């Protein structure tokens, strides 16, 4: 079975408060985009529980630490699964704020459920995905949502970017979660669920990512890339999640500029 786990962007991200468990409550819009990895599973004749291989962007961690393998082991601990061959072709960059690893894990749960006829419903798969990461459950239904809590509480949203083009630039900058939250000052809800209903060409003045205020001063290149996307004609540009991808939404397909080519970049249609 072959499937293509897709990335997401955050449309707005507001950090509301710090929780007693050390995490933060946020509000954001998760929106799926057609930048994909490839994930394939097949029943194996080996005696080992699984075989894992990868290609594409190098994955420099032990197999047992890969979130796809963790998803497999999570289901294997609850349900009887035969030996399985797993291959992941990595195309979504790491540390980009695009949820690539979370998508891979969620798609693994869905694929195992279908391939081995486990019979899990959407709610159960979301519960399992939540054990692997706060944004993993989003990729089970894989539809635009307004997310609250740690990013795992979903409400429907009417936002529809069909027909828009998206350009993304991901420089070689890695921002850890502790670093991202270090400069954050939580503030009350910005009513993002209502603001997202404005036309996209009004988002620039109304919808923000709180992490930009704390991260951009330390990484001026990110601010420069955001300005460049606006200069190129984006109706809205922002950092996705805690970075370091900067994306822009366009009504017409933008052109890859020469100075973008030194970074990971991608242009697609939503």
What does this structure look like?
This protein has 270 residues and is an alpha+beta fold. It has two domains: 2-156, Ribosomal Protein S5, domain 2 (2-Layer Sandwich); 165-269, GHMP kinase, C-terminal domain (Alpha-Beta Plaits, 2-Layer Sandwich), CATH 3.30.70.890. The protein is built from eight helices and twelve strands. It has helices at 67-78, 100-115, 122-130, 138-141, 177-182, 192-195, 210-215, 220-231; strands at residues 2-3, 6-18, 24-36, 38-43, 50-56, 84-90, 145-148, 153-156, 165-170, 236-239, 246-250, 264-269. The protein has a four-stranded mixed sheet, covered by helices on one side. A four-stranded antiparallel sheet has the order 2-3-7-8. The protein has a four-stranded antiparallel sheet with strand order 10-11-9-12, covered by helices on one side. β5, α1 and β6 (84-90) form a beta-alpha-beta unit. α1 (67-78) packs parallel to α2. The radius of gyration is 19 Å and the shape is globular. The two termini are 25 Å apart. The model has no long low-confidence stretch (mean pLDDT 94).
């Amino acid at each position: 079975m072959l499937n293509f786990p897709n990335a997401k962007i955050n449309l707005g991200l507001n950090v509301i408060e710090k929780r007693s468990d050390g995490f933060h409550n946020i509000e954001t819009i998760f929106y799926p985009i057609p930048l994909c990895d490839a994930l394939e599973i097949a029943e194996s004749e080996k005696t080992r529980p699984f075989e894992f291989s990868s290609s594409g962007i190098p994955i420099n961690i032990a197999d047992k630490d890969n979130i796809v393998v963790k998803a497999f082991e999570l289901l294997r601990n609850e349900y009887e699964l035969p030996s399985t061959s797993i291959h992941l072709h990595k195309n979504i960059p790491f540390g980009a704020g695009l949820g690539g690893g979370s998508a891979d894990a969620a798609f693994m749960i869905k694929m195992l459920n279908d391939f081995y006829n486990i019979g899990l419903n959407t709610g159960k798969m979301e519960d399992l995905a939540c054990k692997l990461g706060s944004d993993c459950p989003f990729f089970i239904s894989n539809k635009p949502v307004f997310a609250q809590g740690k990013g795992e509480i979903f409400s429907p949203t009417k936002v529809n970017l069909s027909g828009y083009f998206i350009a993304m630039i991901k420089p070689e900058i890695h921002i850890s979660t502790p670093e991202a939250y270090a400069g954050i000052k939580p503030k009350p809800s910005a009513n993002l669920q209502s603001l997202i209903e404005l036309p996209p060409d009004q988002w620039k003045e109304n919808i923000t990512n709180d992490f930009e205020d704390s991260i951009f001063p330390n990484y001026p290149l990110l601010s420069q890339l955001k300005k460049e996307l606006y200069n190129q004609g984006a109706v809205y540009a922002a950092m996705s999640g805690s970075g370091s991808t900067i994306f822009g939404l366009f009504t017409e397909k933008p052109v890859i500029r020469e100075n973008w080519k030194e970074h990971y970049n991608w242009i697609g249609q939503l």
